[in-house]
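S.,

Sequence below, as promised.
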Amino acid sequence: MSRVVFVLLPGVHLLDLAGPAQVFSTAADFGQPYALAYVAEREQVVSAQGLPLAADTRWPELDPDDLVVVPGWRAPRLCQGPEPVAQTLERLRTHHGAGGTVASVCAGAEALGRAGLLDGRRCTTHHDVQDELASRYPRATVVRDVLFTTDDRVVTSAGIASGIDLALHLLAVRHGPALAAQVARDIVVYARRNGDEPQASAMLRHRSHLDDTVHRVQDLIERRFTEPLPLAALAAYAGVSERTLTRLFGRATNGLTPLRYQQTLRLERAEHLAGHGATLDAAAREVGFEDARMLRRLRSRDQRVGADASERTR
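The prediction came back faster than expected:
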């Protein structure tokens, strides 16, 4: 069981808190091992919107797999916001030092800065206070015009609703894009890419459409992308003909076929595994290929397609 611990400071914005909490709560509804906890320096915290929130003043015991999130708060300037006590800042440092991930939403980046966790790292916050954050923490690199940043298990988001994007990103990294897409659909949001990254997952590129038939087929492919999935079986699942499914799928995904979509998911997952130490052969087998030959062909094909696209935009 992994914990997601939200640190509530006075004046916390409800959506900064509720967005990520909803994402991880929904992931738990789908069977992922998440338990949510809320801690504060006092038993009751009044939100920026006036709603009193109850919290525990005792922190749970944390493991490296646990996540600590600091939602933002209402204040005209960072320096005028709440000042976390020394014990709270030490908790943030200790968890990160033990291998855990620490995240912030909006002005919550100020707490990470006070804890020394932004030094030497990329970060972001709400556009209204980005300049102030850069001034207060000159050893940090404040990245503008992005939804979120990740740097050495320190994750920061731009503000308010971007906390949802941050949480979906963490789900995709931990469990793969299928779960993140499933959660995004269930809470009725578009999965959006992080503007700071040159690449975006297939889920983020090809899920921003309104065709429910294609969404249902994508759900199935994402759950079982390591298995053989004949077009006939996918069409039967969707209750349409193979020709109709191919037409609908291509229209919703800028020309992809279901097979191409499945191959893209396999390739992206294999690249992720290889980037975390797996051999190419092991990564290929993990995503459903017999060996690395097909994986190498797909990588080569995508590189050629990317080069052709770059040439056309010159």
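The first strand starts at residue 2 and ends at 8.

Coffee later?
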